[in-house]
Task: structure prediction
Amino acid sequence: MSAPSFRDYLFQPDHPRVAKVRGLDARSYAEAAKDDPFAGPMIEGWKELYPRPFTGVTSDGVVRDGLFPLADALPGEEAPTADMVAAAEKLLALASLDQMSRLSYPVDAPEWQSWANPEFMQHDTGVRLDEVDPALRDAALGVVEASLSPEGYALMRNLMRINGFLGDLVDLPLLMNEYSYNFALYGVPSGTEPWGWQLFGHHVALNCLVAGSQLVVSPVFLGAEPDTIDAGPHQGVKVFKERIQWARELMAGLPAELRAGAVVFEHMEDPAMPEGRLHPGDERHLAGCFQDNRVIPYEGIPVSAMPPSALALLDRIVEDSISYLPAGPRAARRREIREHYAETWFSWIGGWQGGDAFYFRIQSPVVILELDHHTGVFLDNETPAPFHMHTVVRTPNGNDYGRALVRQFPSR
Result:
């Protein structure tokens, strides 16, 4: 079965899904969404989770200590700290006093946990990039660019452009545009003390902390609806195609008994799923926004049981999932993840052939990687489709937001 085209699922302009929010911006829609039958209950559920003190995602409710020591990075694995500091100082030099007060939070502030990926603004943390002048906006993006790999920054910008493309497709440019994202700084930019930044909005959320030469970018949420731009100045942009193909090849290449063990549910909306397994917004993925303390048990098959060909494909998926990291921290993160392959599990929901929609999770004591195909939000597909996906990266056992490093820092 070939993959469907998103063009087959465009709402008619007068459809209530788009017509009732036309003309609203992020702030006005944030109020309207509270009474929306779909968004309202989701917001209420997330509201209960947000104020809870951070402990970290775990597999069994117990944080495993000692996984993330504070230390100088190994040679060749250092963060681009000097470039990040220079970019942040440029941003702060351009900010007004009011913007400075909105931009900056303590390095261990609970506002780190306010990020979300929907189009509505649940928490107005930091400054809104589509509300500030282009110089300040570009300086904020300069901090992001200095912190990521070139390919990671390009992916993030393409996802922002897809958001703008979607906003134009459904005539909601005030709500969804290339710059409808919040940006905040945490701590004081420093070459030695911990500090970081946060960018979040529709289908893009990154949380970055640097402590000396160590860099943590987690949680990360990157997604797209649709997964390509087929018209306009950015025509030809496509995202996540290789990762999806490698995942299909991995499943197809597993021995039958291992593949059966990996599949925890055969269908994306499976009658066998227990109550609560399908979330109205997150659908199948478990480690999204406001899930900072979630218990996520291991499922599926141990990676150590995979044949070499499948493990090589899993390596590619891991590498692609962390490709937003600059070269040094990426090498450190890759090494950290591989060192725990003996404790890593792989699970799957759905089909894997042709245009089948699916979900997978790679989970260990040091990483959670998820990819989930979704139903339409601003497209009219009522079942999950490969042209709408969410991806999540978490650092379980307490090091999301670099918290494990911050807690060990001598000045904290």
Summary: The mean pLDDT is 96. The first helix runs from residue 16 to 19. Residues 1-412 form one domain.
